[in-house]
Design goal:
This protein is α/β, with parallel strands linked by helices. It has 12 helices and 9 strands. Strand 2, helix 4 and strand 3 form a beta-alpha-beta unit.
Length: 297
Protein backbone atom coordinates (compact mmCIF):
# COMPACT_ATOMS: atom_id res chain seq x y z
CA UNK A 1 0.00 0.00 0.00
CA UNK A 2 1.36 3.42 -0.94
CA UNK A 3 2.29 5.80 1.88
CA UNK A 4 -0.24 8.46 0.76
CA UNK A 5 -3.05 5.90 0.70
CA UNK A 6 -2.03 4.59 4.09
CA UNK A 7 -1.98 8.11 5.54
CA UNK A 8 -5.39 8.86 4.04
CA UNK A 9 -6.89 5.75 5.62
CA UNK A 10 -5.32 6.62 8.98
CA UNK A 11 -6.79 10.13 8.74
CA UNK A 12 -10.27 8.78 7.98
CA UNK A 13 -10.00 6.31 10.86
CA UNK A 14 -8.81 9.00 13.27
CA UNK A 15 -11.62 11.37 12.29
CA UNK A 16 -14.20 8.60 12.60
CA UNK A 17 -12.91 7.76 16.07
CA UNK A 18 -12.85 11.44 17.04
CA UNK A 19 -16.44 12.07 15.96
CA UNK A 20 -17.57 8.82 17.60
CA UNK A 21 -15.98 9.82 20.90
CA UNK A 22 -17.50 13.31 20.64
CA UNK A 23 -20.95 11.84 20.05
CA UNK A 24 -20.59 9.42 22.96
CA UNK A 25 -19.35 12.22 25.21
CA UNK A 26 -22.66 14.02 24.63
CA UNK A 27 -24.73 11.04 25.71
CA UNK A 28 -26.79 11.50 28.84
CA UNK A 29 -25.72 8.88 31.38
CA UNK A 30 -27.91 8.59 34.45
CA UNK A 31 -28.78 6.45 37.44
CA UNK A 32 -32.03 6.04 39.32
CA UNK A 33 -32.03 7.13 42.98
CA UNK A 34 -34.80 6.27 45.46
CA UNK A 35 -36.01 8.86 47.94
CA UNK A 36 -34.61 6.64 50.69
CA UNK A 37 -31.16 6.89 49.09
CA UNK A 38 -31.62 10.63 48.63
CA UNK A 39 -32.17 11.02 52.37
CA UNK A 40 -29.20 8.80 53.27
CA UNK A 41 -26.42 11.41 53.12
CA UNK A 42 -23.55 8.92 53.38
CA UNK A 43 -24.93 6.74 50.58
CA UNK A 44 -25.74 9.75 48.42
CA UNK A 45 -22.19 11.06 48.79
CA UNK A 46 -20.88 7.62 47.81
CA UNK A 47 -23.03 7.67 44.69
CA UNK A 48 -21.98 11.21 43.82
CA UNK A 49 -18.24 10.53 44.21
CA UNK A 50 -18.27 7.37 42.09
CA UNK A 51 -20.77 8.73 39.56
CA UNK A 52 -18.51 11.68 38.83
CA UNK A 53 -15.50 9.39 38.37
CA UNK A 54 -17.50 7.20 36.01
CA UNK A 55 -18.86 10.08 33.92
CA UNK A 56 -22.47 9.84 35.12
CA UNK A 57 -24.17 13.13 34.29
CA UNK A 58 -27.68 12.68 35.71
CA UNK A 59 -29.53 11.43 38.79
CA UNK A 60 -33.22 10.53 38.35
CA UNK A 61 -34.59 10.90 41.87
CA UNK A 62 -37.91 9.82 43.36
CA UNK A 63 -40.00 12.36 45.19
CA UNK A 64 -43.04 10.99 46.99
CA UNK A 65 -42.82 12.50 50.48
CA UNK A 66 -41.15 15.93 50.47
CA UNK A 67 -38.90 16.58 53.47
CA UNK A 68 -36.26 19.00 54.63
CA UNK A 69 -33.63 16.25 54.24
CA UNK A 70 -34.73 15.68 50.64
CA UNK A 71 -34.33 19.37 49.94
CA UNK A 72 -30.90 19.56 51.60
CA UNK A 73 -29.54 16.50 49.83
CA UNK A 74 -30.97 17.47 46.46
CA UNK A 75 -28.65 20.46 46.77
CA UNK A 76 -25.71 18.04 47.13
CA UNK A 77 -26.57 16.67 43.69
CA UNK A 78 -26.84 20.02 41.94
CA UNK A 79 -23.83 21.48 43.78
CA UNK A 80 -21.77 18.65 42.30
CA UNK A 81 -22.85 19.64 38.79
CA UNK A 82 -25.00 16.54 38.40
CA UNK A 83 -28.24 17.01 36.53
CA UNK A 84 -31.20 16.46 38.87
CA UNK A 85 -34.32 14.95 37.26
CA UNK A 86 -37.29 14.46 39.59
CA UNK A 87 -39.26 11.23 39.08
CA UNK A 88 -42.96 11.51 39.95
CA UNK A 89 -45.00 8.31 40.16
CA UNK A 90 -48.44 9.15 38.81
CA UNK A 91 -50.51 5.98 39.29
CA UNK A 92 -48.74 3.21 41.24
CA UNK A 93 -49.48 -0.12 39.51
CA UNK A 94 -51.44 1.79 36.85
CA UNK A 95 -54.68 3.71 37.16
CA UNK A 96 -58.37 3.11 36.57
CA UNK A 97 -60.62 5.23 34.37
CA UNK A 98 -61.92 6.99 37.47
CA UNK A 99 -58.40 7.78 38.68
CA UNK A 100 -57.16 9.04 35.33
CA UNK A 101 -60.05 11.49 35.12
CA UNK A 102 -59.72 12.63 38.73
CA UNK A 103 -58.28 16.15 38.66
CA UNK A 104 -57.67 16.06 42.41
CA UNK A 105 -55.00 13.42 41.72
CA UNK A 106 -53.53 15.59 38.97
CA UNK A 107 -53.30 18.52 41.37
CA UNK A 108 -51.73 16.36 44.09
CA UNK A 109 -49.04 15.13 41.72
CA UNK A 110 -48.46 18.61 40.38
CA UNK A 111 -47.83 19.78 43.95
CA UNK A 112 -44.97 17.24 44.07
CA UNK A 113 -43.64 18.65 40.81
CA UNK A 114 -43.63 22.11 42.33
CA UNK A 115 -41.70 20.82 45.34
CA UNK A 116 -39.17 19.12 43.07
CA UNK A 117 -38.63 22.37 41.18
CA UNK A 118 -38.19 24.14 44.51
CA UNK A 119 -35.51 21.56 45.36
CA UNK A 120 -33.64 22.36 42.16
CA UNK A 121 -34.90 19.80 39.64
CA UNK A 122 -34.25 20.92 36.09
CA UNK A 123 -36.42 18.24 34.47
CA UNK A 124 -39.51 16.30 35.52
CA UNK A 125 -40.05 12.63 34.73
CA UNK A 126 -43.51 11.05 34.94
CA UNK A 127 -43.62 7.32 35.65
CA UNK A 128 -46.57 4.94 35.85
CA UNK A 129 -48.55 7.34 33.70
CA UNK A 130 -50.78 4.59 32.38
CA UNK A 131 -53.84 2.44 32.92
CA UNK A 132 -53.51 -0.81 34.83
CA UNK A 133 -52.97 -3.93 32.72
CA UNK A 134 -56.50 -5.23 33.42
CA UNK A 135 -58.06 -2.40 31.42
CA UNK A 136 -59.86 -3.38 28.21
CA UNK A 137 -57.83 -2.35 25.14
CA UNK A 138 -59.08 0.88 23.61
CA UNK A 139 -57.70 3.81 21.66
CA UNK A 140 -59.47 6.03 24.17
CA UNK A 141 -57.08 4.78 26.84
CA UNK A 142 -54.17 6.39 25.05
CA UNK A 143 -56.13 9.63 24.66
CA UNK A 144 -56.87 9.63 28.40
CA UNK A 145 -53.21 9.19 29.26
CA UNK A 146 -52.24 11.95 26.84
CA UNK A 147 -54.79 14.28 28.44
CA UNK A 148 -53.10 13.97 31.84
CA UNK A 149 -49.63 14.55 30.39
CA UNK A 150 -50.86 17.54 28.40
CA UNK A 151 -52.49 19.06 31.48
CA UNK A 152 -49.21 18.87 33.39
CA UNK A 153 -47.24 20.29 30.47
CA UNK A 154 -49.72 23.17 30.10
CA UNK A 155 -49.49 23.93 33.83
CA UNK A 156 -45.70 24.08 33.64
CA UNK A 157 -45.85 26.43 30.67
CA UNK A 158 -48.55 28.60 32.23
CA UNK A 159 -46.49 29.00 35.39
CA UNK A 160 -43.41 29.79 33.30
CA UNK A 161 -41.66 26.59 34.39
CA UNK A 162 -40.14 25.76 31.04
CA UNK A 163 -38.45 22.60 32.33
CA UNK A 164 -38.42 19.61 30.00
CA UNK A 165 -41.05 16.96 30.70
CA UNK A 166 -39.99 13.31 30.42
CA UNK A 167 -42.40 10.37 30.23
CA UNK A 168 -41.59 6.74 31.07
CA UNK A 169 -43.23 4.02 28.97
CA UNK A 170 -43.25 0.24 29.03
CA UNK A 171 -40.78 -1.43 26.69
CA UNK A 172 -43.58 -3.17 24.80
CA UNK A 173 -44.81 0.20 23.52
CA UNK A 174 -41.58 0.47 21.54
CA UNK A 175 -43.24 -1.77 18.97
CA UNK A 176 -46.49 0.17 18.68
CA UNK A 177 -49.37 1.45 20.83
CA UNK A 178 -50.15 -0.64 23.92
CA UNK A 179 -53.86 0.07 24.17
CA UNK A 180 -54.56 -1.80 27.42
CA UNK A 181 -52.35 0.55 29.41
CA UNK A 182 -52.85 3.46 27.03
CA UNK A 183 -49.23 4.14 26.10
CA UNK A 184 -48.78 5.33 22.52
CA UNK A 185 -45.35 6.85 21.88
CA UNK A 186 -46.51 8.77 18.80
CA UNK A 187 -49.29 10.40 20.81
CA UNK A 188 -47.11 11.07 23.86
CA UNK A 189 -44.46 12.66 21.66
CA UNK A 190 -46.90 15.49 20.88
CA UNK A 191 -46.32 16.96 24.34
CA UNK A 192 -43.35 15.19 25.98
CA UNK A 193 -39.85 16.57 25.59
CA UNK A 194 -38.27 13.18 26.26
CA UNK A 195 -39.49 9.60 26.27
CA UNK A 196 -37.88 6.94 28.44
CA UNK A 197 -38.76 3.41 27.32
CA UNK A 198 -38.02 0.72 29.91
CA UNK A 199 -36.49 -1.73 27.47
CA UNK A 200 -35.33 -4.24 30.07
CA UNK A 201 -34.42 -7.61 28.51
CA UNK A 202 -36.04 -9.33 31.51
CA UNK A 203 -39.43 -7.93 30.53
CA UNK A 204 -39.72 -9.30 26.99
CA UNK A 205 -41.03 -12.75 26.08
CA UNK A 206 -39.64 -15.30 25.52
CA UNK A 207 -37.75 -14.31 28.65
CA UNK A 208 -34.75 -16.61 28.31
CA UNK A 209 -34.08 -15.58 24.71
CA UNK A 210 -34.10 -11.87 25.49
CA UNK A 211 -32.08 -12.36 28.66
CA UNK A 212 -29.39 -14.05 26.59
CA UNK A 213 -29.51 -11.35 23.91
CA UNK A 214 -29.53 -7.99 25.72
CA UNK A 215 -27.87 -6.08 22.87
CA UNK A 216 -30.38 -7.22 20.25
CA UNK A 217 -33.35 -6.66 22.58
CA UNK A 218 -32.50 -3.05 23.28
CA UNK A 219 -31.24 -2.19 19.80
CA UNK A 220 -34.35 -3.64 18.14
CA UNK A 221 -36.66 -1.84 20.59
CA UNK A 222 -35.07 1.56 20.04
CA UNK A 223 -34.91 1.06 16.28
CA UNK A 224 -38.61 0.21 16.31
CA UNK A 225 -39.41 3.46 18.11
CA UNK A 226 -37.57 5.43 15.45
CA UNK A 227 -39.37 3.55 12.69
CA UNK A 228 -42.68 4.95 13.96
CA UNK A 229 -41.60 8.42 12.83
CA UNK A 230 -40.92 9.84 9.37
CA UNK A 231 -37.32 9.27 8.28
CA UNK A 232 -36.56 8.05 11.83
CA UNK A 233 -36.41 11.70 12.94
CA UNK A 234 -37.58 12.18 16.49
CA UNK A 235 -38.99 15.41 17.86
CA UNK A 236 -38.08 14.38 21.41
CA UNK A 237 -35.07 13.09 23.32
CA UNK A 238 -34.82 9.32 23.71
CA UNK A 239 -33.45 8.11 27.04
CA UNK A 240 -34.06 4.38 27.46
CA UNK A 241 -33.79 2.66 30.81
CA UNK A 242 -31.37 -0.28 31.01
CA UNK A 243 -31.17 -2.84 33.81
CA UNK A 244 -28.06 -3.88 35.73
CA UNK A 245 -29.16 -7.43 36.46
CA UNK A 246 -31.82 -9.84 35.27
CA UNK A 247 -34.19 -10.74 38.08
CA UNK A 248 -35.48 -13.81 36.24
CA UNK A 249 -32.09 -15.42 35.72
CA UNK A 250 -29.25 -14.96 38.26
CA UNK A 251 -26.00 -13.91 36.60
CA UNK A 252 -22.41 -14.37 37.71
CA UNK A 253 -20.33 -11.24 38.27
CA UNK A 254 -18.65 -11.55 34.87
CA UNK A 255 -21.98 -12.09 33.13
CA UNK A 256 -23.46 -9.04 34.85
CA UNK A 257 -20.57 -6.94 33.56
CA UNK A 258 -21.09 -8.28 30.03
CA UNK A 259 -24.85 -7.71 30.38
CA UNK A 260 -24.33 -4.05 31.27
CA UNK A 261 -21.79 -3.48 28.49
CA UNK A 262 -24.07 -5.02 25.86
CA UNK A 263 -26.98 -2.76 26.80
CA UNK A 264 -24.89 0.41 26.78
CA UNK A 265 -23.42 -0.52 23.41
CA UNK A 266 -26.92 -1.10 22.03
CA UNK A 267 -28.03 2.36 23.16
CA UNK A 268 -24.97 3.95 21.55
CA UNK A 269 -25.40 2.06 18.29
CA UNK A 270 -29.12 2.92 18.11
CA UNK A 271 -28.44 6.65 18.09
CA UNK A 272 -30.45 7.33 21.27
CA UNK A 273 -29.62 10.44 23.29
CA UNK A 274 -28.44 8.57 26.36
CA UNK A 275 -29.54 6.06 28.98
CA UNK A 276 -30.69 5.72 32.57
CA UNK A 277 -29.56 2.71 34.60
CA UNK A 278 -32.11 1.06 36.87
CA UNK A 279 -31.21 -0.68 40.11
CA UNK A 280 -34.16 -0.89 42.53
CA UNK A 281 -31.80 -0.93 45.51
CA UNK A 282 -29.39 1.60 43.98
CA UNK A 283 -26.45 -0.81 43.74
CA UNK A 284 -24.28 0.71 41.03
CA UNK A 285 -20.78 -0.58 41.76
CA UNK A 286 -20.82 -2.86 38.70
CA UNK A 287 -21.92 0.01 36.46
CA UNK A 288 -19.26 2.30 37.91
CA UNK A 289 -16.62 -0.40 37.32
CA UNK A 290 -17.71 -0.81 33.69
CA UNK A 291 -17.58 2.92 33.02
CA UNK A 292 -14.34 3.56 34.89
CA UNK A 293 -12.29 0.62 33.65
CA UNK A 294 -13.48 0.14 30.10
CA UNK A 295 -14.24 3.79 29.36
CA UNK A 296 -17.63 2.92 27.87
CA UNK A 297 -19.21 6.33 27.19
Amino acid sequence: MKIKTRLALLTVFSLTLLFSNMANANLVKGIYVTQESLEDTALLNHLIIHAKKAGITTFVVDLEQPSQKSKQNAALITNNNIHYVARIIMYPSGGTAQQLSNKAIWEKKYALIQKALEYGASEIQLDYIRYNTKQKASEQNAQDVLKVIQWIKDKLVAEKNSVPLQVDVFGISSFGPELHIGQDIKLISKTADAICPMVYPSHFEPYLHHSEHPYETIYDSLSSIKSQFNDNKLTFKLYPYIELSNYRYPLSHDKKIAYIKAQIKAVEDSGADGWYAWSPHNYYDNLFAVLETTKVK
